[in-house]
Amino acid sequence: MKQKKQNALTVLLGYAGSHRRLTVLGLGLSAVSMVCSMIPYLCIWLAARDLIAVAPDWTQARSVTDYGWIAFAFAVGGILIYFLGLMCTHLAAFRTAANIRKQGMAHVMQAPLGYFDANASGLIRSRLDAAAADTETLLAHNLADIVGTVTLFIAMLVLMFVFDWRMGAACLLAAVISILAMCSMMGGKNAALMAEYQAAQDRMTKSGTEYVRGIPVVKIFQQTVYSFKAFQQAIEDYSAKAEHYQGDVCRVPQSINLTFTEGAFLFLVPVVLFLAPGALASGNFAGFVTNFAFYAVFSAIISTALAKIMFAASGMMLAGTALGRIQPVMDAPTLAVPEHPQTPKDNRVVFRDVSFTYDGAQSPALSHVSFTAEPGETVALVGPSGGGKTTAASLIPRFWDADTGTVEVGGVDVRQIDPHVLMDQVAFVFQNNRLFKASILENVRAARPDASREQVLAALEAAQCGDILEKLPQGLDTVIGTEGTYLSGGEAQRIALARAILKDAPIVVLDEATAFADPENEALIQKAFARLTKDRTVIMIAHRLSTVVGADKILVLEGGRVTEQGTHEELIAAGGLYTRMWADYNRAIQWKMESG
Ligand code: ADP
Ligand code: MG
How far apart are CA 141 and CA 118, in angstroms? Predict the structure, then answer.
């Protein structure tokens, strides 16, 4: 527990970087301002003491106005210093939060692309946002409050001991009880509850992202039930955890702790009164009265200070967990960049005995996969869902790196190719293609930022998107996803194909690119395909077997292994899984034609 907290603080200082000095300066100023703000109260006490000493001859009490001026000076000084301190801590906080976002993003940019699958990206953002925001509050307010209040507390205690050690001892005792009660409230079970609460929040963000991303699928296949249920479940789980967390803080034994935190100082009243007879007996009337006055001041200050500390401590806890939660983001694996990059000689793609297991998975997603796609060949990957098709395709542009074996492009291990060069070699059309909320022009141009309008138009033409452009109000400049400009799955697919065509890469990877096609779109998509894949090395994943019949080579992937390999005719002749899939596929087509 303690170890963890310390780590969070070191981590925090790490993010503060060069702004560490500014942070410390801000905290120091806030401590000084607290001491300054105590002086006016001290002046009251000193004035009272002086008055009692000269009573009843008030004419000698000129010093009272002097105390007034001193109090005034320190009040003004204290406020100015406090303001300066706040400026420093705010500036440092703002810059540290910016550092967290920058470092997080910079790190994540070096992670393998597979790290950004649909599930992770929303989560990464929400975690970085939370860490940045919580840290900002912590540095701007909470830490300064804690440092200032603790300084004030210690100064008051010292003064108490100087005036009357018994009062000092009583205050110290009350402070210790109060702090212990506060610590037990913040630590242990509550920290665990808070972690659970934040984990539930994560799950909600994640399934919310999934749900929103899944809307195109929902539209076409009416698969509302599953994703919505998962989302709803996550919301309910989150609400339950939140209520549990809130509820537990308010119930026993938390309420007992709270009572002790605030009530410990009440016991100073009897201490003051018990000490009175002794003071009076020894003729120290002045001592008694001034102690009493000091106590009144002390308790007033302490109650606001305690409230501030409690508030600040919960801020510390929040920031601590938030920083802990971005650790996995900061620890994300980074893609090893070759020291002496080599240039691929052509667009041949070779898998040599490739095996790959996802982090934390029980069984490998690919085991001992070998095949060659000669330049200009089309290799189709087919097989049951979960067979490893997408995983195999993902290894070509290094979305992940193989555990053993090698993936080669143009005779060079992909790990020895400059990542930018490699990305230029491969056009990837995703299973669920991703269009940005931007104009069609910008969406297509994402593949090649320097492309002219004419080139973009030509690519759209080649991808059979003419009809889409015609019906959109601003043509090429229409922003997708705004009112009246939603695209159907098949239309979005063709835009994604245009993007791949514009990229003009020698290797094309198509992952179930026909999955979204509706019947009237399919012919157009096939045409767009033909344009995209002409004279290129193509790795095509398809569950519509009609699209793979003409492939130069078909690989059947089952449980991560290549179980069959050959042309359509060879596989049909072999009579294995492919033959059964082909028969099923034809039955389905037959059924569709008969039923309508
Ligand atoms: P296919 O594309 O043939 O349907 P995949 O390559 O997507 O199959 O999946 C192969 C196996 O790897 C499956 O068991 C799947 O559950 C698992 N898998 C896929 N993606 C991930 C991932 N990002 N993390 C962990 N496991 C994954
Ligand atoms: Mg897949």
Answer: 36
